[in-house]
Amino acid sequence: MLASSPVESVHAMKASDLAEAGVQFFVAFDHETPVAMGALKQTNDDHGELKSMHVLEERRGKGLADAVLGRLLQEAGVAGLKRVSLETGSQASFAAARAFYQRHGFVFCPPFEGYVEDPHSAFMTREV
Questions:
Q1: Cα 24 to the chain's mean position, in Å?
Q2: Taking the C-alpha atoms of 45, 50, 51 and 55 in order, what is their torsion angle to the nearest 10 degrees?
Q3: Residue 13 per-residue DSSP state
Q4: Looking at the domain assignment, is residue 2 inside a domain?
Q5: 3-state secondary structure of 25
Q6: When you count CB atoms within 10 A of the terminal residue's CB, does the N or C end of the chain come out lower?
Q7: Mean pLDDT along residues 53-80
């Protein structure tokens, strides 16, 4: 994230944040090699935020992102969340990520849960 966004616009979770209450973290493995990951952070009783979704570049295009997102949305439903939102970059380098989320029913929305307008951020949401 730091390679394509100014530090004040990077909202990725640190590894230590993944152990916080209300955060679920999932990793997809190929044998013993982690190849994709994603986290779901519950922000209130009926809303969650997708965090830290990533697939190794050499493994993209094989359905791993679909599988991780599917699991995160499934877990959001189990937790009783009604809506899931995310923040991603607005730059051209994030166009594929924005298109991926749109294909999965996410729509652009205003900033949520403490975020503010930022020219480097795009905010998206969908019902669970």
A1: 12
A2: 150
A3: P
A4: no
A5: strand
A6: N
A7: 95
Q: In what order do the strands lie in the sheet with 33-44?
A: 23-30, 33-44, 47-55, 83-89, 121-127, 107-108
> Among 56, 52, 50, which residue's Cα sits nearest to residue 104?
50
What distance in Å separates the CA atoms of residue 66 and residue 74, rounded to the nearest whole number? 12
CB neighbourhood size of 85 (10 A): 20
Domain that holds residue 97: 7-127
Question: Token pair 């996410």 is at which residue?
Answer: 106
In sequence order, what are the residues at sequence separation of 6 or more whose Cβ sits closer than 8 angstroms to the Cβ of residue 66? 104
What total of structural domains would you count in the chain?
1
Kindly report the length of the chain. 128
Q: What is the pTM of this model?
A: 0.85
Q: Residue 113 sits in a domain of what CATH number? A: 3.40.630.30
Question: If you write DSSP's letter for every residue of 49-100 in order, what string do you get?
Answer: EEEEEEE-GGGTTSSHHHHHHHHHHHHHHHTT-SEEEEEEE-SGGGHHHHHH
